[in-house]
From TrEMBL:
It comes from the Eukaryota. One of its GO terms (molecular function) is acyltransferase activity, transferring groups other than amino-acyl groups. The keyword RNA-binding does not apply. Keywords: Membrane, Transferase, Transmembrane, Transmembrane helix. The chain crosses the membrane at residues 224-244. This is Alpha-1,2-mannosidase family protein.
Length: 488
């Protein structure tokens, strides 16, 4: 008897052009801390059941590289114990509290004052965030034919850690928001409220381009350098890595009062210009990074931008959700003359001005079309962001609107409600919701250049940031953090 064909065994979904970009062939982990004891088997079952809904099934597929080198997703016609929708692993330390575990006791948590804490080196939380033996690269992962999503839970007698690991070819950060929301609905038995997945088989971003129409127009952001100038830029970039290499990744906790103090100070120097709290926090970090330089130095800050709600080719969010990478970039170039003595408010205003100019639909369409044309030619995505040869590059991503802390509601899985906070202080988060989370890259923190994530707000309106910068920049940041403690 002949073996079943692939069509009989699997339902094949495409991996869209932007998802398949080589820069997405990395694995990310999101480690969520809950201060309740959760039924982790119930969590797993709800996630597996969600992946039986319509095109949510795509998330349960196995990545496969075809003979022409392209990625596709093969979803089992029926999920079984041999071919599950999710790779589930659980660790049980329920005989001890989280405060008794040698590593978990160091998980950053809210305090009364601002502080920074390393999550690298001895404080690397990957043993709680990534299943043991998880592949370190895409080639190894493809060979395992494992589900795309790995769920790792760690149970204590007073808390639960829940980690979700996936290849970035699956979707972007907003895709995770949609997953957490739908997972929560499934857990609550609200199947009829689970949103429909849009664009699972046809890439909605294809509407941005046609083969016969080349991308034209002028990009509003900083300009790309090439030839000798590009060579010189690389030399300066490597020089910076040698003397200002990011060495430590830390979480920064800013109590509500501290975050408001930074925003208030920025507003004093922003004139009549509109800036957000996120603008102020980003500018604060950038200013501290540049203050570590012996002399003012030009900086280009690269921002990730969510395309949902900005591109008319995407359906209204009420029609369903897009589970793919719909991300563009915007660049803020700050010359040495701007950096010299610039206030946080001045940097925030200039950053918002440049980013706003680059995130109109016309500008985002232009940039995304150019990137997609490069990808169709089999090249890496080409981005225009180098204003000067000596420009230092800083990467940032503001995840506040992704609202993971506020989106996940695992209340139906609570077995035992957690106690109050430290020293008996009143609990601030609703039952079944997370306290905070860590974002980790499976292979290690990004250290090619300075980078920071605004992780977002917790239920106490406190801000969390994840920052990777040089020791010299950390000295400046810690000085500022200490100063905030005195003011608030």
């Amino acid at each position: 008897m002949s073996s079943p064909s692939q069509d009989d065994q699997y339902d094949v979904y495409p991996v869209h052009l932007g998802d398949a970009a080589s820069m997405n062939e990395k694995f990310v982990s999101w480690l969520f801390r809950f201060n309740d004891v959760l039924d982790v088997d119930k969590l797993h079952l709800a996630l597996a059941q969600l992946l039986e809904h319509g095109d949510w099934r795509k998330l349960g597929g196995r990545l496969h590289r075809t003979s022409d080198g392209k990625l596709e997703l093969r979803v089992p016609r029926r999920f079984t114990s041999e071919q599950p929708a999710v790779a589930f692993t659980k660790q049980d330390f329920s005989s001890m509290s989280i405060g008794e575990h040698s590593l978990a006791k160091h998980f950053p948590e809210p305090r009364d004052v601002a502080y920074s804490q390393s999550i690298a080196g001895d404080m690397d939380f990957r043993s709680l965030a990534v299943p043991k033996g998880f592949p370190s690269n895409m080639k190894q992962f493809l060979a395992t034919q494992a589900p795309q999503i790995a769920l790792l839970t760690t149970s204590f007698k007073d808390a639960t850690l829940v980690s979700v690991v996936w290849p970035h070819t699956l979707f972007d950060g907003v895709g995770l928001t949609h997953l957490l929301h739908a997972w929560s609905l499934q857990l609550a038995g609200k199947d009829d409220e689970i949103p429909r997945v849009l664009g699972a088989r046809e890439d909605a971003l294809d509407a941005l381009e046609t083969d016969a129409q080349a991308a034209t127009g002028t990009f509003a952001g900083p300009k790309l350098v090439s030839g000798l100038n590009l060579f010189l830029f690389i030399v300066f970039f490597l020089w910076h890595r040698l003397f200002y290499r990011p060495r430590d990744t830390r979480m920064i906790f800013l109590p509500r009062a501290a975050a408001e103090a930074i925003y208030g100070e920025a507003k004093k120097h922003s004139g009549d210009a509109f800036i957000t709290q996120g603008d102020a926090l980003s500018a604060w970090v950038v200013q501290r990074i540049t203050a570590a330089e012996p002399a003012p130095h030009p900086v280009t800050v690269m921002h990730l931008v969510n395309g949902r709600g900005r591109l008319s080719c995407l359906a209204d969010g009420r029609a369903g959700v897009y589970l793919q990478n719909i991300v563009s970039t915007a660049f803020c170039h700050l010359g040495a003359d701007v950096i010299a003595g610039a206030s946080v408010g001045a940097i925030a205003v200039e950053s918002r001005r440049q980013v706003a100019a680059q995130t109109t639909e016309a500008q985002m369409t232009l940039l995304l079309r150019r990137v997609r044309e490069s990808l169709r030619r089999g090249k890496r995505a080409q981005l225009e962001f180098l204003e000067t040869l000596r420009s230092r590059v800083v990467f940032t991503n503001n995840l506040t609107r992704a609202a993971y802390v506020q989106t996940a509601d695992f209340g139906p899985a609570v077995v035992r409600r957690g106690e109050e906070g430290e020293e008996g202080e009143e609990r601030r988060n609703p039952e079944g919701t997370m306290v905070n989370y860590l974002h980790l890259v499976v292979n290690g923190h990004i250290t090619a250049t300075d980078n920071f994530y605004i992780i977002g707000k917790d239920h106490g309106e406190n801000y969390w940031l994840m920052v990777t910068v040089s020791d010299k920049a950390w000295t400046r940041l810690d000085e500022s953090i200490a100063s905030l403690g005195k003011k608030c």
